[in-house]
Write a structure and sequence with these properties.
The structure is a homodimer of 409-residue chains. Chain A has helices spanning 5-8, 13-24, 30-37, 41-53, 118-135, 175-183, 192-203, 263-266, 268-280, 288-293, 300-308, 312-336, 352-363, 385-399, 404-408; strands spanning 28-29, 57-63, 72-77, 83-89, 93-100, 105-112, 143-150, 154-155, 160-161, 187-191, 212-217, 221-227, 230-232, 340-344, 375-378. Chain A is an alpha/beta fold. Chain A has a 5-stranded mixed beta sheet, with helices on both faces. The first copy, chain A, has a 5-stranded mixed beta sheet with strand order 13-12-11-14-15, sandwiched between helices. A 3-stranded antiparallel beta sheet of chain A has the order 1-3-2. In chain A, helix 3 packs across helix 4 (41-53), helix 5 crosses helix 6 and helix 12 crosses helix 13. The longest helix of chain A has 25 residues, at 312-336.
């Protein structure tokens, strides 16, 4: 994948390894870096000197020493040494975030989208990228690249989007190429779930966590999977489609051909449809008024607001969705044995705690509970999680050590 | 993990990488090795010379060259350069296999077990290890080590078995240490599913496959997962417990606290219980006679033999098990996106094709079928799969390149 490697001059594997440890730690000392990489103190020292002189990292105060030796100088990335732009392309909006190396959002843009074709969306997105960079006063030479997150299916290697559900005119769009040509920065593309997962690993709830599952719930539901510190993509690059885990042999038929898939219980559309049916059947709810006025106006936003405000009917249906997600998660935890599950994406907005509670209860029934505790957290990044994650893709791609030799096997 | 590394003198990372490519290929040339490792031709040449002179590898004929150049000499492991012993400890038997570097079984032993404690089993197993080595005429210096596979849960790093279901007296047994002390060879321990998966990757249906799922069905059902060419163990080392994927919210209550877990449909005991209930209800089957004579004599062996012979009732119950496994597999395939699923273990004996067919049908409903085809195969190793896999553990552990630096992160 092409990336903004030239600016940070991430030349060799050892340097990348050192940078990765500095990036993931809250300040790392030279001694600690040597211990964790297995590199000699001399090699670490040389790499650190080079990175310091290039302004990529900086020294920040002193850490405690173990065993009473003299305190150690801690190193961290210099936030202003580089920036990345994250672009989220969703069905109804484009969000752009300019992020520094410390993960701070220093500029943002949000444009609602009527349903539009790729050309218009690319123009809008690239315009917004230029604006945040200009307004942030960031020199273009400091922009490492642009990360773009779009709904899947897509091919991150080829940079091609393959007709995500609900997006017409997006059958086989070379999105990365188009944006790259229009904005002039190196571009990486990935799906929204993967981007958010990378963002959480960078500065969110999964910081420093090597094995975790990020559950992304937007229009549908899917996951970004980290295995042993690396993003897991699967054979064809389409890993993480947890929305199509079958949960009930008697459940509703799904578009994929199976019955009772997770997405049939959890998607905003299905939850909303269940609420509507119960309102049609005359059940009580604070949503009766909207529904009576105009059934079409009763959307998922209304349902989750009502649930957050304690409406029984809305809460029951969100709870049903959360219970089914919990069942899927316990199966995944038994199979993958992660350290943590992080829940993020718009569908959790305002009702994240309902999902977290159900997930936690379900994960309490994981096999060998004495030997593994699977934590659950709701992402703190909120609505900006995907754009932030898209920016993180640029850094992840630059820094994450990858073994060329192994990949070739 | 301690291994027989000293004999093959697997000193450095580059050498392990070269050996791994030679091991996984059906003959690899120096040029190919250089291309795939990214090592220089000179480095590859030096490593190959050393391995040849030590008798670890040998030259075998010539491969076709690409583009009409002169044919290339192919390299492979010299089968007799080393041996590994695999030990399977199961609830009712101990199996031992002596295996050469080409994966050929050159000696075997099988002892039925009455229910016995760890001390007796260790004695029996170590005795059998000595016998196969002696009978095979293999010098002890050529034995790289002993791989032991036992039912989980167990801790492969610590070498400790933690009370597998159905094995009394096995709560926290330091099995590796005990066997090592008694036999004098380096010992590695892992669970039966993982061992079989490593065996399949070595010389079975998953040879050269980087992302696959090995489904092991014995007493219960679990999986060995290969991700990007490496065994995936999870955070606590207990990954692969697919038997506790919940498949039906209205299903039978499981010991883990959930409802409708896969193992409730697939375990030999459950299948047999379902058959018994239908016979009690008076249904027709070729199993009526055994059942009438002595219901306790109607075991899973009888059921699967009847199914293999075409008995409708037995086939229906095995089919129900296979359908539920298929549902679990399509969820796993959507999540993990593997290249292949391999089915192995005693419970598939004689009825593997029933499972394969259902799995294939279910996997045909995977998401994005155009972009991913998930193959299904039944292991050809049959009843010897676990012992063979246990031997493969020794070699896997010696050869599989591992990044110390990355592991420390």
């Amino acid at each position: 994948m092409r990336t903004g490697t030239n600016l940070l001059k991430v030349k060799d594997y050892n340097q990348r390894l050192v940078l990765e440890i500095i990036r993931l730690g809250d300040g790392a000392s030279r001694v600690e870096i040597a211990e964790r990489t297995g590199l000699t103190a001399q090699t670490v020292s040389n790499i650190v000197r080079r990175l310091l002189s290039e302004g990529v990292i900086e020294e920040v105060g002193k850490g405690r020493s173990r065993g009473g030796g003299k305190p150690r100088v801690l190193l961290r990335l210099r936030p202003g040494a580089g920036y990345a732009v994250g672009v989220q392309i969703d069905r109804d909006e484009v969000r752009v975030a300019l992020v520094d190396l410390a993960g701070r959002v220093v500029g943002r843009r949000r444009h609602p989208l009527a349903v539009e074709g790729p050309e218009d969306v690319v123009k809008l997105a690239v315009g917004a990228v230029g604006e945040v960079i200009r307004e942030g006063g960031v020199k273009s030479g400091k922009v490492l690249g642009v990360g773009v997150a779009a709904p899947g299916p897509l091919d991150p290697r080829g940079g091609v989007v393959y007709g995500p559900p609900g997006m017409e005119g997006w059958e086989e769009v070379a999105l990365r190429e188009k944006i790259e040509a229009a904005c002039g920065y190196p571009v990486v593309l990935d799906n929204d779930a993967v981007a958010s997962a990378v963002g959480e690993r960078w500065i969110g709830a999964a910081r420093g966590v090597r094995d975790f599952l990020f559950v992304y719930a937007g229009w549908g539901i899917s996951a970004g999977i980290f295995v042993d510190g690396q993003l897991y993509r699967g054979r064809s690059g389409t890993a993480g489609e947890i929305g199509h885990i079958p949960l009930d042999p008697e459940g509703p038929v799904c578009g994929c051909g199976n019955r009772g898939c997770l997405v049939r219980y959890c998607s905003p559309r299905e939850i909303t449809a269940r609420v509507r049916r119960r309102l049609d059947a005359g059940e009580e709810s604070t949503l009766r008024e909207i529904h009576g006025r105009n059934p079409a106006a009763l959307d998922y936003e209304a349902v989750r607001r009502a649930a957050a405000a304690g409406d029984r009917l809305a809460l029951e249906e969100v709870g049903e969705s959360a219970r089914m997600l919990g069942r899927a998660l316990v199966g995944l935890a038994n199979t993958l044995d992660p350290e943590k599950v992080v829940l993020g994406g718009r569908a959790f907005g305002g009702v994240g705690e309902v999902y977290r509670r159900e997930a936690e209860e379900a994960l309490g029934r994981v096999l060998y509970p004495g030997r593994r505790q699977v934590g659950v957290e709701v992402s703190a990044s909120g609505e900006e999680a995907v754009a932030l994650g898209a920016a993180a893709l640029v850094l992840h791609d630059s820094y994450a050590p990858r073994m060329q030799g192994l990949e070739a096997l």
